[in-house]
Amino acid sequence: MPNVIFAAPLLSENASRMVAAVGSLPGVRLGVVSTDPQERAPDWVRSAIALHWRVDDILDPAQLGWAVEELGKRMGSVDRLFGAYEQLQVPLAEVRERLGIEGLSAEAARNFRDKARMKDVLRAAGVPVARHRLVEDAAQADAFIREVGFPVVIKPPAGAGSVATFRADDAAGLLHALTEAPPSPGAPALVEEFVTGDEHSLETISIDGTPVWHSLTHYHPTPLEVVRNPWIQWCVVLPREVDEPRYDDAKRVGDAALKALGMTTGLTHMEWFRRKDGSVAVSEIAARPPGAQITTLVSRATDTDFVRSWAEVMVFGTFTPPERKYAAGVAFLRAQGPAGGRIRAVHGLDRVREDVKGIVVDAQLPALGAGARPTYEGDGWILVRHPETAKVVEALRDVVSNVRVELA
């Protein structure tokens, strides 16, 4: 019976799904570490948890390690320790190494987490990435821009989900970015050339360092444009034709990137561009499950529970590639109106075509009276699937064209 510890800052809806998936695996005895008390989880999640340990700061390796050791004393041993939260990957790896628990090494976790270090490693391995530099002040940023020119992207080297990410098209934009998030010797900013093209993701499952499965998505428009324009309603499309030759170069680049970064066993999420000249450029890679409902898209496209499949990879190191039966896609609904307003109405649902409504498989509509959410996933979403990718794209266009979330 494997003793498994899952770590999560909060027992949120997403974390609860993952806890339940791990706890449902045959023979697993599950311990959970979180900053939330166990009582915060719903009953169907608490029933999957054998032991729980609460800490004040789960990102502190000392507190996380203390919790794992104490749970290990009560469980008898710890065979697996993992989590899905981006900022937890390095602390988890450090605790695994200190306690002799199998899993991704701390060095590899830092390769994935520190985006400047990641790009250095990838460039040295011949993987195409944007030119970049860590800067500690405006003078260093100006020096880099004199080399590469505008536009550039400014972001924290250990960011996630396009948070605190800015695009600067000129000197005024650069000044705004550096004012909003001033770099310093103790907290540098990552400045990189802005890569233009169509943006995609590539999800890969690896077992003992060997990629055994790929999936991919198209973003419409890019996440950076979504963050810069809070009113934009956007889509993620998971095509059915993931094995077409037109994606072979992206898969080769992805495999080379994972080898260079030191991936062993797990699920990774790579964001990449198809440049206008047809070439591939890697944006960044995370050693964790993707956001933006991509795990749900894979589940619907394959008629499987992909979260549970990821749990099996992490606990048992096994994976059976599922059949791709459908294309799938999600439209994210984002509120429009005065800053600080609350959602007054959702317009246009009645104008969505009946044939589109017939392929909707999941939806989370904006809650009336709620404040607008600042995240890129917005205030609600509608997910569709169909055997034909073109039908999915057409349906998502229909949704984002007709549905409008109004703030008052």
User: Mean pLDDT across all residues, rounded?
Assistant: 92
What low-confidence regions span 5 or more consecutive residues with pLDDT below 50? Answer: none
Rg over CA atoms: 21 Å
Structural class: alpha+beta
CATH topology of the largest domain: D-amino Acid Aminotransferase, Chain A, domain 1
- Percent strand equals 25-35%
- Tell me the span between the first and last alpha carbons: 54 Å
Overall tally of domains: 3
The percent range for helix content is 25-40%
Number of beta strands: 19
| Main beta-sheet annotation | 8 strands, antiparallel
CATH class of the largest domain: Alpha Beta
Please tally the helical runs, counting DSSP H or I stretches of 4 or more residues.
Answer: 14
Shape: globular
Going by CATH, what is the homologous superfamily of the largest domain? ATP-grasp fold, B domain
Strand order of the largest sheet: 13-12-9-10-11-14-18-17
Q: Give me the CATH architecture of the largest domain, please.
A: 2-Layer Sandwich
Sequence-ordered SSE layout with sheet pairings:
Elements: E1 3-7, H1 13-23, E2 29-34, H2 43-46, E3 51-54, H3 61-75, E4 80-82, H4 89-99, H5 106-113, H6 115-124, E5 132-135, H7 138-148, E6 152-155, E7 166-168, H8 171-180, E8 189-193, E9 198-207, E10 210-220, H9 223-228, E11 234-238, H10 248-261, E12 266-274, E13 280-286, H11 294-302, H12 306-316, E14 327-333, E15 335-336, E16 343-347, H13 354-357, E17 360-364, E18 380-386, H14 389-402, E19 404-407
Parallel strand pairs: 1-2, 1-4, 2-3, 15-19
Antiparallel strand pairs: 5-8, 6-7, 6-8, 9-10, 9-12, 10-11, 11-14, 12-13, 14-18, 16-19, 17-18
Helix pairs in contact: 1-12, 3-4, 4-5, 5-6
